[in-house]
Write a structure and sequence with these properties.
The protein is an all-alpha fold. It has one domain. The protein is 79% helix and 0% strand. The chain has 7 helices and no strands. α1 crosses α2, α1 packs parallel to α3 and α3 packs across α4. The protein is elongated, with a radius of gyration of 23 Å. The two termini are 43 Å apart.
Length: 253
Amino acid sequence: MTAIGIGPDSILTAFIIFCRIGACLMVMPGFSSSRIPVQVRLFVVLGVTLALSPLIAPIVTPGVAGAGLSQIIFLIVTESLIGAQLGLIGRIFFLALQTMAHAMAMYMGFGMMAGVPLDEAEPIPAMASLVTMTATALIFITDQHWEILRGLAGSYNVIPPITGLSAQFALIRLVDKLGEAFVLALQITTPFVLYALVINFALGVMNKLVQQIPVYFISIPFVIAGGLLMFYFLSGEMLMLFNTRFSSFLQNG
């Protein structure tokens, strides 16, 4: 039986793979949650790196074998930037959803009611926390975390370590996905934008017609109740649309 030795090139190859995977999962929604202890996140990245290394090593090893110190530093920096770029693109979708969910809460009258910060550094409205946390949970419920790992493995065929990072290509992708994410988030929250326009126009007309009654203060409970009723009927479709488009991004890049 022949023993398979692990030489310096093998260890360095695994570390280069770790740089891209670790940087990606550091900002990718779900994996980068502050609620997960740092040690757990580190062991997840190590486990994923060791699991994917046999598949990726043939692509990475030619750039590592016989490389000098400057080339190794170049690979570490560029692989970390590539991984951060991949994770940031996924993060953009959730940041856009959180922004529009915050606006949706304001349209419903919940904007001034800050909730407990769950996955964020600062408190945001409870409605926005509910939407973003549910969308994050759906990543794991629908097994999209496996698509994230598949996309990481496939990224080495599209962006090999030898080519390095193209700043222009990275910026174009970020801008395109940023526009796509905010268009998606706006589509999801459009019913609440229309609701806010109609209800505020109606209340403004009523306030002009009956100036003796403080219409604004009396109407607040009804505005909130109407918004909650809309959210009850539309939340499933909203999250399904977001989950489908995010899944399409993970599959097609």
